Amino acid sequence: MPMKSQFAHKRSPIVSFLLALTMLAFAACSVQKVTSTVVMPLNQQPVSAQRLHPLDIAVLPFKTPLKGSQENISPATSSSARNAEGLFLANQLTSTIQKTSAWGAVRSIPSRETTVDVYVEGKIINSDGEKLTLEVSVSDTSNRLWYTKTYTQSVGYYAYKNTMELYRDPFQNLFNSITNDLVQYRHELSSVDARRLSTISSLRFARDFSPEAFGSHIKESSSGEFQIIRLPAENDPVLTKISEIRERDYLFVDTMQGHYDAFSGRMKKPYQSWRQATHEEISSARELKRQSVTRTIGGIAAVIGGIMASGSGNGSAQSAGAVAIGAGALLVKSGFEKRAELKIHEDVLAELEQSLEAEIEPRVIELENRTVTLTGNVEEHYNQWRSLLREIYKTERGEI
What we know:
The chain has helices spanning 2-26, 79-98, 158-166, 172-188, 191-209, 211-214, 237-310, 315-357, 378-397; strands at 57-59, 106-108, 118-127, 131-140, 145-154, 218-220, 226-228, 363-367, 370-374. By secondary structure, it is of the alpha/beta class. The chain has a domain at 47-280 and 366-397. The N and C termini lie far apart (122 Å).
């Protein structure tokens, strides 16, 4: 009897270990991440600086990562949805910059073919509804780089509930931060430099339409920066005609801004819903991966431990080992089921981006007594418009 009691005492740790291992593997649970965000104030142009020479600024569509180039973007998300997101985010920044009084005209433009004083270009580094990271580069019409900076912001699930109530973008602080940096850099720019940039913009536009008349007024250095060589006469009739052409170009760009605004208006609700759902799906997918790994590894460990216990030659240990093998097999099966469930979530992401694409429809506008259909690449439409302007210039120049 004493010997039996002593053996029971020795085998207890084996059974306890197997039971503890099994229970630990089943203990995986989901945790809801909660974050809070303080609204970042948007810096306004001070009254003392409102007499500064105004500079026109434009935001280009944000570039999107190539498929599979970033691990935080689901492979289920199509390039069409990402391109739409690049347009939406760029116009969101444009509308934020417009709320300050630090600039002249503020527009969204399709490419650098549009001549303005300052360009803002961006790249989407990460966007999954939970975290947004943008790399922003700012340069001017002389091709001089001002700065490149990376901005990032993370939000929790409840940020989307507040968005629905306050009609504020969950990542508005990120756009405010970008805008504040732009305003700060503008304040540090002298009036002389600001006027020089506006002159370069005018000369570049004139050179594009009449290189024979204005080709010698400006040149590009070996470093790629434009420099002013000489200024045209103020009463130059060719420059006057080109100035009129540029006013027409402004009209088209303003019309395109209306297109971007209408596009953003149509896209806002489905995009925010897509963001929120993607946030939920990404969070669920991350938790499912964790549970899958935990359960699979725990199950395999339980099976191995059970096999070892089954060969111990002791009846109680063998029984515990059999239980552990069965429980471990269930855990492994559960791990594979979690992976299958993850695939379902990825399929949901694909359906979400398809529903987003359905909101992106062509728009038809009336311009210069012409009907222009905005489909496909907006940049192509602007290039066609510039070609039309050149035809108008050649026709009207005959009147000089």
